[in-house]
Amino acid sequence: EPEVTQTPSHQVTQMGQEVILRCVPISNHLYFYWYRQILGQKVEFLVSFYNNEISEKSEIFDDQFSVERPDGSNFTLKIRSTKLEDSAMYFCASTEGTSYEQYFGPGTRLTVT
Amino acid sequence: GEDVEQSLFLSVREGDSSVINCTYTDSSSTYLYWYKQEPGAGLQLLTYIFSNMDMKQDQRLTVLLNKKDKHLSLRIADTQTGDSAIYFCAESRESSASKIIFGSGTRLSIRP
User: Fold this and answer.
1) β-strand A10-13 against A31-37: which pairing, if any?
2) I need a labelling partner for B19 at 20 to 30 A (CA). Which of B13, B30, B79, B110 fits?
3) Interface size, chain A vs chain B, as Cβ–Cβ contacts under 8 Å
4) Using beta carbons and an 8 Å cutoff, which residues of B are at the interface with A?
5) Is B95 in a helix, a strand, or coil?
6) Per residue in B26-58, pLDDT tens?
């Protein structure tokens, strides 16, 4: 069964450093998303992406964040200058577009020290 | 505004039914979801229901929707130890790229 994959599973970085979280959505899916879950809190929407542009973004998704689909398979989230409060589990999701079933990856745990 | 609320914990005896409840505030919600998160794992879509339905059954899972009260429930029949997880209620609007709004999750624990 096709699935969304994410790498790395755990990333530790120092405050101020740039990180890139990578996702490979399901191959025939057209819509892509990033969510995050700070420990003990709700899963929060960050951004949705379709046709090579951002469709919607939350107030969390400020200028420090960017997304890219550099090739036909990868979907990346970049945080330019990480802050302690960026420590969270980051989930990538994708959907076909003809249905509303968003399939989530296993997540990347980002720890900012 | 958009908000999804659910109780934090539920404990049931193995073999009994589990009922996890959820309320939401957005009357524009079109799709309502239940996701399961096992320890250390991602979010697994269990089932979803359109807002024009009031019930959906899928094997041991039954979803009930009361649109008037904005109340959603998930019933798991014959609860097993493998059902131990956090269950997230979630909603989205009718838009192909629509974000999903999640509740806080209900931690289901199974006792022998």
Assistant:
1) unpaired
2) B30
3) 57
4) 30-31, 35, 41-45, 48, 88, 90, 92, 96-105
5) coil
6) 777 788 999 999 987 889 999 999 888 899 999
